[in-house]
Amino acid sequence: MNVTQIMERGQSLGITGLEGMSKGDMIRAIQIAEGSRDCFGNLWRRDCQEYECYWREYCVIPNPE
Predict the structure, then answer these.
(1) Rounded average pLDDT over 12-33
(2) Domain with 15 in it
(3) Which residues lie below 8 Å from residue 7, measured CB to CB, with a gap of 6+?
């Protein structure tokens, strides 16, 4: 997902001030607005249990095992 798409999703939720934010910060702001944890890109994402998260496929790094 590119920055424009992320920004559009955020704006559709009524989030303002996304301009100038990093991609990760924008996604975390959206997660909060969606009522989710603001966890995008955290180090523990390899063990993420948030299976219904919209951002999961962009965040979780496949475990090499």
Answers:
(1) 95
(2) 3-59
(3) 18, 19, 26
The model's pLDDT over 24-52, given as tens digits with 9 standing for 90+, comes to: 999 999 999 999 889 998 887 777 888 88
Beta-carbon count within 10 A of 33 CB: 15
Number of domains in the chain: 1
Phi-psi region of 17 (alpha: psi -120 to 50; beta: other; left: phi over 0): left
How is residue 44 annotated by DSSP? G
pTM for the model: 0.83
Q: How many CA atoms lie within 13 A of 15 on its CB side?
A: 22
For the record, the structure tokens of 2 come out as 């590119």
Longest Cα–Cα distance in the chain? 41
39 assigned to some structural domain: yes
